[in-house]
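Retro notes (design track)

What went well: tokenization of the new backbones is finally stable.
What didn't: we kept losing track of which sequence belonged to which structure.
Fix going forward: every design gets posted as structure first, then sequence, in one message. First example under the new rule, 205 residues:
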């Protein structure tokens, strides 16, 4: 079984978004460590100071992004890259999610979306080794559909955009989605394949 640590320096936010009953369920999950408020602050100080060795025992780290200094964010990202740890950063200041699976799985997400009805099931599946992607936190088992829909919208925007620099930025996002879905970048019929897969998934719902 895998192990997770959730570092949250504002525990009242958990109750606000999840409710008392779901917080109790969260606290009862085996192999999920929820350090208390003072201990969380200690972890954050250590991350900011690049003293992160004790996090090696965890397969995934969930942490309140805004609680870290810029150096702390760099430290945890380098640590997760070197140790192949999955990382989720949540913050109320994030308006949209950002996901990448290269060179390690990482997801930046809004706090309200993090503390959603999907969280407990996602954590349980991850601990039991039944998770394919961090995007399951957002889309559950239909996470591939979400990425395909995002690809379709970005692809349309790419072909409508006249600014070359913006086109390059969109192309980078499209390539990232291709990597997420484990499909080849040089597939000229990628849009058609996306459309077929979207139709197939929707019919199965």
């Amino acid at each position: 079984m895998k192990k997770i640590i959730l570092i949250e320096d504002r525990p009242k936010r958990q109750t606000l978004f999840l409710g008392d009953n779901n917080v109790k369920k969260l606290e009862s999950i085996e192999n999920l460590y929820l350090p208390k408020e003072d201990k969380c602050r200690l972890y954050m100080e250590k991350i900011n100071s690049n003293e992160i060795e004790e996090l090696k025992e965890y397969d995934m780290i969930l942490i309140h992004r805004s609680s870290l200094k810029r150096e702390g964010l760099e430290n945890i990202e380098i640590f997760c890259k070197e140790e192949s740890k999955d990382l989720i950063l949540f913050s109320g200041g994030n308006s949209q999610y950002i996901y990448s699976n290269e060179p390690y799985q990482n997801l930046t997400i809004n706090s309200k979306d993090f503390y959603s009805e999907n969280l407990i099931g996602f954590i349980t599946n991850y601990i039991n080794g039944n998770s394919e992607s961090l995007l399951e936190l957002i889309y559950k088992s239909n996470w591939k559909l979400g990425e395909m829909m995002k690809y379709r919208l970005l692809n349309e925007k790419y072909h409508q955009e006249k600014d070359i620099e913006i086109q390059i930025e969109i192309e980078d996002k499209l390539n990232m989605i291709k990597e997420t879905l484990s499909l080849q970048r040089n597939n000229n019929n990628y849009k058609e394949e996306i459309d077929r897969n979207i139709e197939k998934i929707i019919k199965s719902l």
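Added context from the reviewer: The mean pLDDT is 88.
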